[in-house]
Inverse folding.
C-alpha cells in the first residue's frame, strides 16, 4: 500500500480492505459515508494526497453500491471545489449510482470537468494503491464524460461545454475516444463522420521554430493576442507617459 | 521513446528533456499530460535504468505525485529498494507535505543515518512546533557534528526564538565551543526579529569583551556585525 499510516489513525491498507469488503455488501454502504467526514479519525496524520486517495476510493464505491442521500453533500462538495483529478472523477462516478440528478448537479459536473481539464490524469478505482499497474486506467476527464453520458437526454445541454473543450484541443486521446463513443451512441449514427479526432501528434518546440522573438504571439488572460515586441513597446510607452505626467503635474499624483 | 526500455538511455533521456520542454506549452500540452505522468510512473516504478528511474521519480515528486511518495516511502521501509539517498528522499517528501514527513524526519534524526540525511531531516523539522527540545539538545551537544548543530540553530530560532536566544548566547560566549557553531549562532541571532530586535546589554558586554584573537574570521566578523547593528534593550 502506498500511503503511510497516519500519526494515530487507521493504516490505509486496512481502510482499503474495509472499503472493498463494503463494496461486496451493499447493505453496509452507509458505513462508507462516515469515512467521508473530514473529522474522521482515519485522516489523522495523513497528508493531502493520502486523504484525497481514500476519499476518492470511497466515493467511487457508490457507483455500484448506489449513492445514498447522506453521501450527496460530499459528492457535490468535491464536484464544486475539488482540484485533484482522482477525487473529482470519483465524485462523478458516484453520481452514476444516484437515482436523481438535479440541474445544479449537472452544472457542477461541467464545472468540475473544466477545473481538471488542464490537469487530467489516468485513474483506476479497483484498488486504492496508486502504484498498482494491473487494473486498467482511464482518464479522469473521461470518467466525467461517461457520467454525463449516463445521465442521458437530461444532460444533452452539457455537450456544448464538452464541445468547447474539444475545440480548445485540451482533451486527451483517452477522453476523446469516450466522447466519440458517447456521440455515436447518442446520435445512433455510428458511421457518421465526427468532427472530433484524437489530438494531433505532439510537436515539440524546435530550435528553428522562432526566428524573430518580436514576432512571438502572446495571449493574455482575456484571450487578446499581441506580438511580444509590440507589448513591450506599449508598456514602455505607457511608462513614458506616466513619468511625463508625474514630472509635469506632481501635485495631481500627490493629491491622488 | 522515454518509456521504451529497448532504446538507448541517452536517447530516452533526450526524449524526456524534450517532453519536459513541451510541458511549458501550457494548454497545448494538456492532451498529453496524463500519458506523460503515466510514462513517468512506469519508468520510476519498474525501469531497468537507475538514472532514468531517479529522473522520473524526481519530476513526479515535485508534482506531489502519489506514486512518487509511495516509492520514496518504500525506500525507507526497505533500503534495498531505495532509488535515492535518504537525504534526497527526505527532501523530496518534504516538497510534498511537511505534515507527513515530520514523523519520518524524527525517525531519521534518532536513527543510524548519515549526517546528510539527518541534516535534511532537521531542516524539515523546522516546521514542527514540537521539535524545540530536539533542536536545543543537538545545538547544545558538543559531540554532535557541526553541520547538525548549525542547522539546529536555525530550526530552534524558528520554533522557539526565546530558547534559541538563551542557548545561542551561552554557546557564543563559551571559548571552548566550535568557531563555526559560534559564528552560525551569532548570524542566526542577528537575523532574529521581534523578540530580540534589541540586544541584551549583558550579552553585548560579554561579547565585546571576548578575546577572539586566533579565532576564525567568520566568528570575528559575525561578532563585529552583531554589535554594530543592534541597539541596546
Amino acid at each position: 500500500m502506498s500511503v503511510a499510516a497516519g500519526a494515530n489513525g487507521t493504516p490505509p491498507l486496512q481502510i482499503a480492505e474495509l472499503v472493498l469488503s463494503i463494496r461486496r455488501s451493499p447493505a453496509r454502504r452507509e458505513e462508507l459515508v462516515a469515512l467521508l467526514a473530514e473529522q474522521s479519525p482515519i485522516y489523522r496524520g495523513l497528508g493531502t494526497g493520502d486523504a484525497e486517495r481514500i476519499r476518492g476510493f470511497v466515493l467511487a464505491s457508490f457507483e455500484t453500491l448506489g449513492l445514498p442521500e447522506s453521501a450527496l453533500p460530499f459528492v457535490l462538495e468535491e464536484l464544486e471545489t475539488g482540484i485533484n483529478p482522482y477525487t473529482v472523477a470519483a465524485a462523478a462516478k458516484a453520481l452514476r449510482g444516484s437515482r436523481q440528478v438535479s440541474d445544479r448537479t449537472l452544472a457542477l459536473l461541467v464545472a468540475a470537468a473544466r477545473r481538471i481539464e488542464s490537469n487530467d490524469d489516468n485513474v483506476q478505482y479497483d484498488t486504492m494503491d496508486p502504484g498498482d499497474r494491473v487494473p486498467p486506467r482511464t482518464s479522469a476527464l473521461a470518467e466525467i464524460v461517461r457520467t454525463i453520458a449516463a445521465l442521458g437526454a437530461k444532460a444533452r445541454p452539457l455537450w456544448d461545454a464538452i464541445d468547447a473543450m474539444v475545440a480548445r484541443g485540451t482533451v486527451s486521446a483517452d477522453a476523446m475516444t469516450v466522447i466519440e463513443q458517447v456521440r455515436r451512441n447518442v446520435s445512433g449514427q455510428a458511421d457518421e463522420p465526427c468532427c472530433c479526432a484524437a489530438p494531433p501528434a505532439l510537436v515539440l518546440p524546435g530550435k528553428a521554430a522562432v526566428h524573430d522573438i518580436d514576432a512571438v504571439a502572446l495571449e493574455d488572460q482575456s484571450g487578446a493576442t499581441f506580438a511580444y515586441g509590440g507589448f513591450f513597446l506599449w508598456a514602455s510607452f505607457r511608462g513614458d507617459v506616466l513619468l511625463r505626467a508625474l514630472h509635469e503635474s506632481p501635485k495631481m499624483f500627490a493629491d491622488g | 521513446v522515454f518509456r521504451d526500455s529497448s532504446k538507448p538511455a541517452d536517447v530516452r533521456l533526450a526524449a524526456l528533456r524534450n517532453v519536459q520542454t513541451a510541458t511549458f506549452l501550457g494548454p497545448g500540452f494538456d492532451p498529453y499530460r496524463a500519458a506523460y505522468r503515466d510514462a513517468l510512473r512506469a519508468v520510476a516504478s519498474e525501469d531497468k535504468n537507475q538514472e532514468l528511474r531517479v529522473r522520473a521519480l524526481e519530476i513526479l515528486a515535485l508534482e506531489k505525485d502519489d506514486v512518487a511518495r509511495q516509492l520514496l516511502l518504500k525506500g525507507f521501509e526497505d533500503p534495498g529498494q531505495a532509488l535515492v539517498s535518504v537525504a534526497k528522499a527526505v527532501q523530496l517528501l518534504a516538497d510534498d507535505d511537511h505534515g507527513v514527513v515530520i514523523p519520518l524526519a524524527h525517525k531519521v534524526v534518532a536513527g543510524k543515518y548519515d549526517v546528510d540525511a539527518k541534516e535534511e531531516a532537521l531542516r524539515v523539522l523546522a516546521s514542527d512546533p514540537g521539535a524545540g527540545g530536539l533542536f536545543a539538545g543537538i545545538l547544545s551537544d558538543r559531540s554532535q557534528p557541526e553541520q547538525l548543530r548549525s542547522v539546529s540553530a536555525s530550526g530552534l530560532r524558528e520554533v522557539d526564538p526565546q530558547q534559541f536566544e538563551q542557548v545561542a548566547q551561552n554557546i557564543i560566549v563559551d571559548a571552548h565551543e566550535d568557531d563555526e557553531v559560534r559564528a552560525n549562532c551569532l548570524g542566526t541571532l542577528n537575523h532574529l526579529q521581534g523578540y530580540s530586535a534589541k540586544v541584551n546589554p549583558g550579552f553585548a558586554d560579554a561579547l565585546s569583551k571576548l578575546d577572539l584573537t586566533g579565532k576564525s574570521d567568520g566568528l570575528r566578523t559575525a561578532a563585529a556585525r552583531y554589535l554594530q547593528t543592534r541597539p541596546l534593550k
User: Anything to note?
Assistant: The first strand of chain A starts at residue 122 and ends at 123. The first helix of chain A runs from residue 12 to 23.
